[in-house]
Design goal:
Chain lengths: 141, 99
């Protein structure tokens, strides 16, 4: 099996959180991930897409991009979730467990910590007023 | 939302997926049940909850605060392994009991 990739753009609407999870699950299926690996990827994608909708676009809508590719030989997956929203001023601070800018929305500040622990690698790029890109990789067994 | 009230204990059975999208309705329904039942103890049965992300932590800690304000408590039971890992990671079990 060789490589595969996909590139999806969808409206920054809460109903698309489930759509993004389903899309990425279907995409990685040929790699035969086990149940736990599948849940890891779904959860991490859910976190990043939710952040784009709530924080990036502040619930006002926009476009979220979900890109994914894998290599069949090494069974390694790379997922990128990007938005063109407000951006993050201090990425290091944002990544700290329990840091949230929106306690008023009952957010707990655990999204990045979940992405980090459920995937092998997490990279966050962001520029104020331009947007945010989250890149995650995971190697399946 | 399926629930039972036995004495002071309100048990609510959550089902489906708990994400940011579903959270607002689940939050509203839970708050109405807490208010109307006047229960002292809330037990969330998660055996039919098939997915949860960090949105669920906010919902659970928010209900914990509601219960604590009335001098009550909150417990969860039967989380899936995916959900349990999120609880472990976020330290939910420091204040919420797992039955
Ligand atoms: N795409 C984004 N655009 C702008 N800000 C972001 C974005 N993603 C995250 N952030 C910022 O980083 C903070 C931490 O994100 P994280 O997902 O860890 O927690 P949260 O979303 O606040 O809470 P939770 O995910 O637990 O509900 C957010 O509160 C927000 O300030
Ligand atoms: Mg988040």
């Amino acid at each position: 099996m060789n490589g595969n990739k996909m590139d999806l753009r969808f409206s920054a609407l809460p109903e698309n959180e489930a759509f993004a999870r389903l899309a990425v699950s279907a995409f990685v299926l040929p790699l035969n991930p086990n149940l736990e690996e599948m849940e890891d990827v779904k959860t991490a994608v859910s976190e990043a897409v939710t952040n784009a909708i709530i924080h990036g676009y502040q619930g006002k809508g926009g476009e979220v991009r979900l890109q994914a590719q894998y290599d069949g030989e090494s069974k390694s997956l790379c997922v990128e979730i990007s938005d063109e929203g407000v951006g993050i001023a201090d990425i290091q601070k944002a990544r700290e467990p329990l840091f949230t800018s929106r306690p008023d929305l009952e957010r707990s500040g655990m999204g990045f910590a979940v992405m980090e622990s459920f995937m092998d690698q997490l990279e966050v790029q962001s520029a104020l007023g331009k947007g945010t890109k989250v890149r995650m990789t995971k190697r399946f067994t | 939302m399926r629930h039972t009230l036995r004495g002071q204990t309100l048990t609510v059975y959550l089902s489906g997926e708990l994400d940011h999208h579903s959270a607002s309705q689940i939050r509203q329904e839970l708050d109405a049940l807490i208010r109307d039942s006047r229960a002292r103890r809330l037990v969330l049965d998660l055996s039919s909850l098939t997915f949860m992300d960090s949105s669920g932590i906010g919902v659970i800690l928010g209900r914990y605060n509601q219960m604590a304000r009335r001098g009550g408590s909150l417990a969860v039971r039967k989380p899936s392994s995916q959900i349990n890992r999120i609880f472990d990671l976020s330290g939910v079990y420091q204040i919420v009991e797992r039955l």
